[in-house]
Amino acid sequence: MTINGWIQILVYCSILLLLVKPLGGYMYRVFSGDRTLLSPLLAPVERGLYRLAGTSEKEEQHWAVYATGMLLFNLAGFLVLYALQRLQGALPYNPAGMSAVEPGLAFNTAVSFVTNTNWQNYGGESTMSYLVQMAGLTVQNFVSAATGIAIAIALIRGFARASGKSIGNFWVDLTRCTLYVLLPLCIVLTLAYVWLGIPQTFGPYVDATTLEGAKQTIALGPVASQIAIKMLGTNGGGFFNANAAHPFENPDAISNLIQMLSIFALGAALTNVFGCMVGNQRQGWAILASMGVLFLVGVTVCYWAEAAGNPLVHALGIDGGNMEGKETRFGIALSALFAVITTAASCGAVNAMHDSFTALGGMIPLINMQLGEVIVGGVGAGFYGILMFVVIAVFVAGLMVGRTPEYLGKKIEAKEVKMAMLAILSLPLAMLIFTAIAVVLPGAVASIANGGPHGFSEVLYAYTSAAANNGSAFGGLSGNTPWYNITLGLGMLMGRFLVIIPALAIAGSLAAKKTVPASAGTFPTDGTLFVGLLVGVIIIVGGLTFFPSLAVGPIVEHLAMIHGQTF
Amino acid sequence: MSQSKSASILDARILVPAIGGAFRKLDPRTLIRNPVMFVVAVVSLLTTLLFIRDLVIGGGDLGFTLQIIIWLWFTVLFANFAEAVAEGRGKAQADSLRKARTETQAKLLVNGGDRSKFKLVPGTSLKVGDVVLVEAGDIIPSDGEVIEGVASVNEAAITGESAPVIRESGGDRSAVTGGTQVLSDWIRVRISAASGHTFLDRMISLVEGAERQKTPNEIALNILLVGMTLIFVLATATIPSFASYSGGYISVTILVALFVTLIPTTIGALLSAIGIAGMDRLVRFNVLAMSGRAVEAAGDVDTLLLDKTGTITLGNRQATEFRPAKGVTEQELADAAQLASLADETPEGRSIVVLAKEKYGIRARDMATLHATFVPFTAQTRMSGVDIEGSSVRKGAVDALLAHVNRATVAAHGTRPTSDSIRDLQAIADEMAKAGGTPLAVERDGRLLGVVHLKDIVKGGIRERFAELRKMGIRTVMITGDNPLTAAAIAAEAGVDDFLAQATPENKLSLIREEQAKGKLVAMCGDGTNDAPALAQADVGVAMNTGTVAAREAGNMVDLDSDPTKLIEIVEIGKALLMTRGSLTTFSIANDVAKYFAIIPAMFAVFYVAPGQAAGPLQALNIMHLATPQSAILSAIIFNALIIIALIPLSLRGVKYRAIGAGALLSRNLLVYGLGGIIVPFVGIKAIDLIVTALGLA
């Protein structure tokens, strides 16, 4: 590890922290329906959209109605995206002449983008037409992100409201998020990316003649605009197969910094939105602090493991850290930082190959996802995810102060515990069960590139990434087979909707409750004690669930490496 | 019941029958009520069946498997034992109560009011509304209300208190309880509870835990435990497949051992014992909670409504000061006041005599030698005093005494007393009222001497109790019939947070509703019939046992000692119950860390063994250096079973509540039960491993 590396990491953290309050304050106003800077421009558009959709911002929904709207909207999104892929050969904006995507892959891709996962069993430049990329994938990049944020806002309303029946209006939240938050920020980001040299064109691929005289086709496209939302919406689906390691997606250190910032920006700001909505910003900071602790531990371990490198390579007389699979323009610190960020959030964009990380370095991204991506997390998803852990933490710890548990004045009772446990259970269900089947199914095992524990990690990583709606791939696993297309798709659906629906149920149940005023007998949830408690619960619950799988994967691989054994 | 208070937590009379109870509770219909232990029983049965199969067809490490199976069953039995012990303590009390419920003959009055016409019927045949006669020496056949007569009643069967109490018709002391005995006089009682539904029956079933239902918080905690169990089903059920990929094999016995040690068996085993013990602690405290829910609510109370008299102040006012009128010496006033009070047996009167003696050295005089006649207090005159050989001394309420002096002066001199002296007296009296006292004017032969300051004496230590309550986050509200001025003064002196002056049943009820609308939980106690609506509305309503039937029906707790200060302890008991649950849950989950470090290396040590190495790389996780994989697994499962036994005393006694603020309390408990929960099993498992290895068990 170098001082320089740590300075870069600290610079990143500082800028991010500075963004939280202004961005959070803005989003708070947007979702409260207050006037913002952009209102004069966007309010008429917003009203027009409501009129078109036959709804109104004054119309409030019961949580079940909210959930139904969300599910129908996502179902429609899935169907459109599936159709676009299957029909792309016959549709315009297809200069490279891509043919229809085969059904299994189309299903996997459609689910992947609707669930904000962006797991890619395809290479973008060799599979998808411009139309599918823009009207299909990019649209889902926007609305899947907006869906996540809407759910988070609805859940926050559950805490903020008292004795209410409704938790907001899904269509209004979705529209406001897209119109006021995602679109304006993306326009700014796109322009910045274009300025930094990222292509933005409808022109066909370019043929170039290399110095040796060989002919090379250089893939282009409307890249900058897709990268903007890919990062901001924690989607992570690259325009190109190499994702953010590709020089056209992520040309230099500045673009890398902007991309890392935009991955965490909205997720971190949501903690402030939460604080504002419940009337005590410290509550939001406490949650962000818990995330921050877990994040910094992850970065430290990952950076340390990568900087320490492989002793077996050192024995050959080659010094230094592990540069395998990393871009020289980013180096070890920024590759490790990016890997931790992208898996802490449910982004899944990569600027280095996680498969090539050391065993421990690669374990951190895996753990980040196994914990449910609650370390800042996917836009919205991370926040409602961590609130599930908050419910559990408060339930157990709250009893220890001699009161029935409460959080922000809301009693945490059987229904909330049931729903939170359901949400927390859905992740290991998808991650562990599918992995357990895949590692003994001959057809599935055949897709694994490496043997031994590393091969195990590849499968575990794939299902973990899918269920956590991350979308990053460890690499090494040939995922474009019917088995993986279908099961990974199912994993993504479970990881998304089996968390969202309980979260909304909690929102509805909490909104209906009275708010108990805090007293000296209620334990403060805005201090270091709470931060420590929440971190402890996340690590213990997550750790206990996944320890066996990590033991036969990265841990045994690391220990074997020390003994001179590789796989 | 008072004798059972001294029974220690672990008493052989309770422990021995509990062993039998532990086996009886293996009945699946009983076990299913405890999902975690039910799951343990199911997997224990599965391993047992597999063991029998191996026994028949041969194979497997039978000695090791047998030991695991034994400890698995012990885990279930220990849990049952914990519950049986908790119930056993209640049963002992129930037995002593049952003795009171002997078959009685009731004197059923045939003809309403006529006392002479009754027929003897068995007490169990009485219906609600029947009117019975109970005479000296009779056992009251069932719960009821006195509709005629006064009697002294021995209620020791219920309260453990042997001093008789008075029960009379009308007023707040009209309720009688079946099983208690009339000592003197007779009463006519209208039966208010049918056989099997009496207070005594309810008490028996409550202390026995027969009617025990899971409380809301217990249900929520059970859901959490079931969720944790499911997580560990996923974590362990996927291991065989991981193992087969890694080129190994894990036997069902070992998987079951891992699974049982991981699921929260400790709290699962002790949860119902904790609940029963919480109710039991109240019973030992002579408070009966009608439901476990009420005990939980007690822990959550935000606002305590406390009656002034008897709770905050001593029941009676006491003289604290003599304030003479102009031209009168203190000595003179004290002398007159003492004379007027000599024969006054009220506590106020006695306190004047005491003050006169203590402050002015005026010795008690004998009425007879003084040839004095006592003029007692009446509701009409609102004065009392003495007449001594033509001279009269009177003390009384200020307005009543002024009127008396006025009359006397007009009669004697044809003139009114000077308005100066009246104004003077009035000013002193007002000042006293403002300070929360009651002024008592004194005159001698028509001459106003001054005012005695009668004061509500705030109970010693009550101020500290309220400060403690404030630290617990509980707001105290004093309820009093006094005027706002007096109430404010006493409230300030006692250190309550708020007061309700000139309280009526209606504004008491609306105060509770107001607090509840703010999301607060309210506790109160009461005894009168007019308290009933408020008692029913409050989240924790403690009815005094001396109270009326209506009050007892309305409250969700009954205080057998009729001591309103107990509300504070009731809250503490509720909090201790919740804390015990939380602490043991935390402990139980924290334990898993060590168990993983014991079992995972043992299970996975055979994977990826490098050539020339004895064990695989995962052996490095064996940080406790447990002797062999078998001893590691065995030690973990033995620890898991024994910790249940070790924690029974704590779960019965409860984690003590300390009013040190929620944050400090939480960090303390997290340190003890969270961090302790991580460390203790490392030590315990290592120790057991040493023993197991030394004994050659594995």
From TrEMBL, chain A:
It comes from the Bacteria. The keyword Cell membrane applies. Its main location: membrane. The keyword Transmembrane helix applies. One of its GO terms (molecular function) is hydrolase activity. The chain crosses the membrane at residues 6-28, 63-84, 130-156, 177-196, 257-278, 285-306, 330-350, 357-376, 382-401, 422-449, 483-507, 528-551. Keywords: Cell membrane, Hydrolase, Ion transport, Membrane, Potassium, Potassium transport, Transmembrane, Transmembrane helix, Transport. It is found in: Cell membrane. One of its GO terms (cellular component) is plasma membrane. It is a multi-pass membrane protein. HAMAP family: KdpA. Part of the high-affinity ATP-driven potassium transport (or Kdp) system, which catalyzes the hydrolysis of ATP coupled with the electrogenic transport of potassium into the cytoplasm. This subunit binds the extracellular potassium ions and delivers the ions to the membrane domain of KdpB through an intramembrane tunnel. The system is composed of three essential subunits: KdpA, KdpB and KdpC. Belongs to the KdpA family. This is Potassium-transporting ATPase potassium-binding subunit.
Automatic annotation (TrEMBL), chain B:
It holds the Pfam family E1-E2_ATPase. It catalyses: K(+)(out) + ATP + H2O = K(+)(in) + ADP + phosphate + H(+). ATP binds at D344, E348, F377, T378, A379, Q380, T381, R382, M383, S384, K395. One of its GO terms (cellular component) is plasma membrane. Mg(2+) binds at D527, D531. Its EC number is 7.2.2.6. Residues 103-208 form the P-type ATPase A domain. Its main location: membrane. One of its GO terms (molecular function) is magnesium ion binding. The active site is at D307 (4-aspartylphosphate intermediate). SUPFAM superfamilies: Calcium ATPase, transduction domain A (SSF81653), Calcium ATPase, transmembrane domain M (SSF81665), HAD-like (SSF56784), Metal cation-transporting ATPase, ATP-binding domain N (SSF81660). It is an enzyme of class 7 (translocase). InterPro entries: ATPase_P-typ_cyto_dom_N, ATPase_P-typ_P_site, ATPase_P-typ_TM_dom_sf, ATPase_P-typ_transduc_dom_A_sf, ATPase_P-type_domA, HAD-like_sf, HAD_sf, P-type_ATPase_bsu_IA. Keywords: ATP-binding, Cell membrane, Hydrolase, Ion transport, Magnesium, Membrane, Metal-binding, Nucleotide-binding, Phosphoprotein, Potassium, Potassium transport, Translocase, Transmembrane, Transmembrane helix, Transport. Part of the high-affinity ATP-driven potassium transport (or Kdp) system, which catalyzes the hydrolysis of ATP coupled with the electrogenic transport of potassium into the cytoplasm. This subunit is responsible for energy coupling to the transport system and for the release of the potassium ions to the cytoplasm. NCBIfam families: ATPase_P-type, kdpB. The system is composed of three essential subunits: KdpA, KdpB and KdpC. PANTHER family: POTASSIUM-TRANSPORTING ATPASE ATP-BINDING SUBUNIT. Belongs to the cation transport ATPase (P-type) (TC 3.A.3) family. Type IA subfamily. This is Potassium-transporting ATPase ATP-binding subunit. The lineage of its organism: Bacteria, Pseudomonadati, Pseudomonadota, Alphaproteobacteria, Hyphomicrobiales. The gene is kdpB.
